[in-house]
Amino acid sequence: MSDQALPGSPLRVLVADDNPVVRAGLAALLNAHPDIRVTAQASNGAEAIAIATCHRPDVILLDVRMPGTDGLTALPTLARLAPVMMLTYSGEPEVVAKALRRGAVGYLVHGEFTADELIRAVRDLRDGTATFTSSAVDVSDPLGVSYEPNQNSSHLQSFVSQSSKARPTYAARLHGRGHNRLEFGLSAREVEVMDLIAAGMSNQQIAATCFISEKTVKNHINRIFAKLHSSSRSEAIAHWLGTAHGGWNR
Length: 250
Hints:
Elements: E1 11-16, H1 20-31, E2 36-42, H2 45-55, E3 59-62, H3 71-79, E4 84-88, H4 93-101, E5 106-109, H5 115-126, E6 130-132, H6 134-137, E7 147-149, E8 157-161, H7 170-184, H8 188-198, H9 203-210, H10 214-227, H11 233-245
Parallel strand pairs: 1-2, 1-3, 3-4, 4-5
Antiparallel strand pairs: 6-8, 7-8
């Protein structure tokens, strides 16, 4: 049976943050609304990928700095599984820019939004509406992303793309992933393994995530390298992400 939410069912949220107090606070806040449910929590990027791959949440709230696999490393894979909004204390322009290039739909910095604004941003996220707090808004312009502000919020800037230069919607990303598989001739399992390689996972982590042996992981990687004409993980990742993200990640 599919894990995708049925029409009218609560919006299922994955919260990924290394601070258990932050995770508990977000869960309590979001779960107070009957149309939203925090169904899973993760303490780092690797856990988030494993959980999202298995349970397919409707939206993902992702911290930037976490031990092990951080949010930015996990972001390209997570963004192909569900719309991702960064929810973090990291508001540096270079971090915001990297997150947007890697597929984040929105970017909220703690201390720059109210509880009500966070709830509205989470609801908008499933519809592909990008939401940014003030310190993240100005970064979108140099990236060639055009948006139309929503005047309903005094603190947040909610945007809907009005330009062909804007980042594709989540559905477009899924289409792009399908093109990946056709482009390189990867099987469904090889696509999954390559996504996890791109997220920075070790062979041991990939084996645990996919419930296969490390030897099987190595066999998949050998076939992937052959199909991607690559001799190393870094070379394979460069080929994979270059095609996977195409124009919207340049």
